[in-house]
Write a structure and sequence with these properties.
Structural class: alpha+beta
Strand order of the largest sheet: 1-2-3-5-4
Shape: globular
Strand content: 5-15%
Distance between the termini: 26 Å
Radius of gyration: 19 Å
Order of helices and strands: HHHHHEHEEEEHEEH
Largest sheet: 5 strands, mixed
Number of strands: 7
């Protein structure tokens, strides 16, 4: 629980708008990256296993330290100039970082609901279709997080998964409206997607713009299991 609060407080301090302005429009390195220079495994290692809530800059420094030679080898194969590749790679890793730390935060939220030691997250599980795996009272729950135009939670018709593991697949469908930073029309009325977002108690927004999951995402399933 302490780490959940610590991570939540960390996310609130992230200068998300600054990062978006700096990196969101840089899309130079958009080709498939070989597994040995992807950042997903390291993200799980740092923020979930080691529970070190470091800034993007510090994470990226470690990423370069651990994968420097393999990054250079790949850059040479692309024949891209070093400056362009470096700028593009950092922006690419930032987008991965921003998306995954939100997902990892959801894992901490799930653990605060189901209890310490009930949640598993890793790159391997991610590739198998479980962004968040919960093992609670002999029940295995494989949560997969997906953005959608309309929010909801579905377990009867799970989204496509590369490898379905044992347990119940549960898709967390959530909406982040494009109008989040500009919620009103010229007439001063709240836009429909924004109102829909406000009504969804499974998510909340921090002042810096991070949209995160709340306990309401996981509480209904816990109550269902506890009742049986």
């Amino acid at each position: 629980m302490t780490k959940f609060k610590e991570f939540t407080n960390f996310l609130k301090t992230v200068q998300l708008q600054k990062y978006r302005k700096e990196y969101s429009t840089i899309k130079i390195v958009e080709m498939d990256l070989p597994k040995n220079i992807q950042a997903i495994e390291l993200l799980y290692t740092v923020y979930w296993e080691e529970k070190k809530f470091v800034s993007f800059e510090d994470f990226y420094k470690r990423y370069l330290q651990e994968k420097g030679s393999t990054i250079d080898e790949f850059r040479i194969k692309t024949t891209m100039c070093e400056d362009c590749f470096r700028r593009g790679l950092k922006a690419r890793i930032y987008r991965t970082w921003a998306g995954l730390i939100t997902q990892i935060h959801a894992g901490y939220v799930a653990e605060s609901v189901f209890g310490d030691g009930t949640v598993l997250m890793s790159e391997k599980l991610d590739h198998q279709g479980a962004d968040i795996r919960v093992e609670y009272k002999r029940h295995a729950l494989n949560y997969q997080v997906k953005k959608t135009s309309h929010a909801g939670v579905k377990s009867s018709k799970p989204l496509a998964r590369k490898n379905v593991m044992d347990g119940e697949p549960i898709d967390i469908l959530y909406e982040v409206p494009a109008c989040l930073s500009d919620p009103k029309t010229k007439k001063g009325e709240f836009r429909v997607p924004y109102l829909r977002f406000l009504e969804d108690t499974r998510t909340e927004t921090f002042e810096n713009g991070f949209v995160v999951f709340t306990a309401d995402t996981f509480l209904p399933k816990k109550k269902e299991i506890d009742a049986n």
